Amino acid sequence: MKDLNRLFKPKSIAVVGGGSWCESVIKQLKKINFNGEIWPIHPKRESISGIKSFKNLNDIPYAPDSTFIGVNRFQTIEIVKELSKFGAGGAVCFASGFLEAKTEDTDAEDLQQKLLKAAKHMPILGPNCYGFINYLDGILLWPDQHGGIRVNRGVGIITQSSNIAINISMQQRALPIAALVAAGNQAQIDIATIGSNLLQDDRITALGIHIEGIKDLSAFEELAKMALKLKKRIIVLKVGLSKQAQLATISHTASLTGTEAGANALFKRLGIARVKNLPIFLETLKLLHVTGPLKSKNLASVSCSGGEASLVADIACGYEVVFPELNDRQTHDLREALGPMVALANPLDYHTYIWRDTKAMTLAWSAIMDPSIALTLLILDFPRPDRCDTRDWQCAIDAAISSKKNTETNVAVVATLPELLPEEISQKLIMSGIVPMFGIEEAISAAEAAAIKPPKLIKPILKPLCSKKNQLIPEGRAKEILSSYGLAVPKSTRAKTPNQAANKSSEIGFPLVLKGEGFAHKTEANAVVLNILNKEQVIKEATRIESTSFLLEEMITDNIAELLVGVVRDPAHGFILSIAAGGTFTELIKDTTSLIIPIEKGEILKALEKLRIYSLINGYRGNSKANLDAIIDAIMSIQNFVIDNSKSIEEIEVNPLICGREKAIAADLLLRRS
To answer: Do the domain assignments include residue 542?
Structure first.
């Protein structure tokens, strides 16, 4: 991993280029009170922003720790080459027109390779990025305005989008941002490397990553391991589609898995919480900064309105959080505080008659707070200060702070609308150890993410190699291969002509299944016929199917449920193993779950239990149960084959895996490999 300390914590900064961008860098350096050396470099100007300018790099006193390069892409390559020879600590490459522009410019990809060659071992951030802001130490290489302030501790945020980075810096949610980094093209320094550097700073409490795609799966895995070791949490907002995953297009597994399922499976395996939008991203980071990880998903809600209590309960239905029933202690203390007129429940509507009575409010709010509750949500909306008198809400602030002190539990003040919680109040709450949160759904989603339990140990992921030319293996041959790994398959024989198929049918016996080989989707191609009863029917159906080879198999009658089990090679996320409702249900109900290989038997059982079709497997309404051990063994045999042949596997799919009382048999199998 590259040493980024000189780049991110420089004592000397060079700013190369003219115009408003470089002037803005120097202006922002002054504003953030950078106390090191600043060296503007411009061939014609005597000074920039009141600081003496140098004609070229050779004129500055010594190699700069960090350099902002604000020139065009061609000049950027030359400047990077000079800095590398000079022994500089690193550079931010602001220019665009590199790899991100390859669809419009055929030279763009080549230019990025030239940039990497010019940098050699010198760290470069970007290109096509604004740079970074270190709010802890008062350092930045940033050519535009930003809304942040110096902090003593806070969260680290990395994004591939400079514009999103600017927007995040302008947040008014009282989130203390310790470091903000725009990664751009990640030509050399990727998000995982930046994240590892930030996590090692004791002043950074959590890490947020806005990401379009994972460049280096191994590096990202190491980042997760570091977070686990340091007991810090990572929150991810992933957008975009993985182009690598689109290579897998033949099987149902590929369409079921997609990028989303693969990313979700990867993040879950690594103990990383994925959130769905930017407000939840910021609220989760804020929650982690103030409270640290939540010990459970048990929540309590307190409001002075039945409408708000109902709203909280309804929103929570879409999440895994729980609002437990009140225990005896909570019930007793709430009754003592509120009297007989209030219906006691969680979420709680405490009514408004105790409003302005800070002592009564404190007693009521403290009563519902409990060690069994991971986070108590106090629903409070403040009036707009430009038109209303906000003094009447001081009682609520005081009661919240006193309740927090009394119980030493995790407390959040939640506004139903973001504009109804002023920033100055939010800052006061954070200073008292209370989380100010903007939006009920954002608060609930953040609590769910903050309660995710990381694994005790992150097991190595089976890394997929680059895709090679591959082919569809005939089903009969594919089943021979997988059966050698213990996968149960139907009794079968192969034939090249309809007459040969009829003659060989006696080896199987009737009824049987006839398949034409060479089709990825036999059903859609009308190349599979079930329940054939005699040789004449074999000849008739084989003649109809346009195929040069045929597969004859025994009919499997012991059928309690049907599963799809498939694996897709995805360079962005690993080998993704999907388990889903199989047969005709595959596309109808899309009942699926995905895991990253390798996995253990216990993980397979948990995945199966999440499926709706599991009720059939487990003996729905008193019916016979399928052999669960046989199902798990079948899935393990598929995984073992993939592990042993990872260099050549593109995708494999069993659909259906017929799950019976005694066996789990692969009725149909698709295998694509190099």
So the answer is: yes
Q: 113 and 61 in one domain?
A: yes
Consecutive H or E run containing 155: strand 154-159
The pLDDT score that the predictor gives to residue 93 is: 96
Quick one: 318 and 177 in the same domain? Answer: no
Q: Does 426 lie in the same domain as 313?
A: yes
Q: Alpha-carbon distance 563 to 663, whole Å?
A: 13
Which ranges of 215-251 does DSSP label H, i.e. alpha helix?
A: 217-230
Which residues make Cβ contacts (< 8 Å) with residue 408, sequence separation at least 6?
none
478 within some domain: no
Query: Does 377 lie in the same domain as 418?
Result: yes
Q: End-to-end CA distance of the chain, in Å?
A: 33
Q: Return the sign of the alpha-carbon dihedral for residues 653, 655, 656, 659.
A: positive
- Is 318 in the same domain as 381? yes
Could you tell me which of 347, 323, 315 has the C-alpha nearest to residue 334? 347
Q: Hey, what amino acid is at 325?
A: E
Report the alpha-carbon distance of residue 492 to residue 6 in Å, rounded.
Answer: 66
Question: CB of 440 within 8 A of CB of 378?
Answer: no
For the purposes of burial, counting CB atoms within 10 Å of the CB of 566, is it exposed (0-12), middle (13-18) or buried (19 or more)? buried
The answer to whether the Cα torsion of 222, 228, 229, 233 is positive or negative is positive
Residues 88 and 198 in one domain: yes
Residue 301 tokens, joined = 């809600």
Instruction: With a cut of 90, say whether residue 254 has pLDDT above it.
Output: no
Question: Whole-prediction pTM value?
Answer: 0.89
Q: Are 189 and 308 part of one and the same domain?
A: no
How do residues 54-103 score in pLDDT, each as one tens digit? Answer: 999 999 999 999 999 999 999 999 999 999 999 999 999 999 888 887 87
The answer to whether residue 247 is domain-embedded is no
| Per-residue pLDDT, 618 | 92
| Domain of residue 621, residue span | 561-673
Give me the percent of the chain exceeding a pLDDT of 70.
Answer: 95
Task: Check whether residue 520 and residue 617 sit in a common domain.
Answer: no
Task: Report pLDDT digits (tens) over 315-342.
Answer: 999 899 999 999 999 999 999 999 998 9
Phi-psi map region of 93: left, alpha, beta (phi>0 left; psi -120 to 50 alpha): beta
Closest by CA position to 90, among listed 80, 99, 76: 80
Domains: count for the chain: 4
- Of the candidates 343, 302, 294, 345, the one whose C-alpha atom is nearest the C-alpha of residue 321 is 294
CB-based contacts of 510, cutoff 8 Å, min separation 6: 532, 533, 534
Other C-beta atoms closer than 10 Å to the C-beta of 213 total 19
Q: Looking at residues 409-430, what average pLDDT do you find? A: 95
Position 469 in a domain? no
